[in-house]
Design goal:
Strand 2, helix 2 and strand 3 form a beta-alpha-beta unit. The protein is of the alpha/beta class and 189 residues long. It is built from 6 helices and 6 strands, in the order E-H-E-H-E-H-H-H-E-H-E-E. The protein is globular and about 50 Å long. Strands 3-2-4-1-5-6 form a 6-stranded mixed β-sheet.
């Protein structure tokens, strides 16, 4: 039997969260973090992965991740023309579209990806990882953790907006080489 452990780590707060705007790949930690300040939290890691984006690379440096690999499949949900937009501006300019996006996981922002698409993407990635033995630590956006939980529980994307994922937390998935199990959710880092 192959034991596969996957730790999904969410970084701390970003400037997008501070400013009440949608995420962007250029978001940074707020307040800034010092490289190595979280060193020693993870031992015997076989593989470090990071989602594309500055905040995830900063979190990897904070944790002293050894040679982290950027994994495009772990990118945050593409928000198309809404990327980096202020939530209050979007509510003012496109209230109906924002309301639909928040209520319907199959709705995609203009030029973006729906939450259902994100869940499918993460589910496919998890399927490919089910037999990768050892411990993988992946530093990912909150949406990817939500998508992974929904994929493992096989409940579809409907509850996506009802999952709160804590900043600077760890969610653990385990596999026996055949399927994933949810072990812990949002353990403080």
């Amino acid at each position: 039997m192959t034991l596969v452990r996957l730790l999904l780590v969410t970084p701390g707060l970003t400037d997008a969260q501070r400013d009440s705007r949608l995420p962007s790949p250029t978001d940074r930690h707020f307040p800034p973090v010092e490289p190595g300040c979280g060193a020693g939290r993870f031992r015997t890691v076989d593989r470090w992965l990071v989602a594309p984006g500055l905040a995830f690379g900063e979190a990897a440096a904070m944790l002293d991740a050894a040679d982290p690999v950027v994994e495009p499949a772990l990118a945050d949900c593409s928000l198309g023309t809404w990327t980096g937009a202020s939530l209050s501006d979007l509510f003012s300019s496109e209230p109906e579209a924002v309301g639909t996006w928040m209520a319907d996981p199959s709705f995609a922002p203009p030029g973006g990806e729906s939450m259902a698409d994100l869940v499918d993407r993460v589910d496919q990635w998890l399927d490919a990882q089910v037999a990768v033995a050892g411990l993988t630590v992946a530093i990912v956006p909150h949406g990817v953790v939500r998508a992974a939980i929904l994929a493992v529980l096989d409940v579809g994307p409907a509850p996506f907006q009802r999952l709160d994922i804590t900043p600077r937390s760890v969610t653990e998935l385990r596999s026996d080489g055949a399927r994933w199990n949810l072990r812990t959710v949002c353990v403080p880092l």
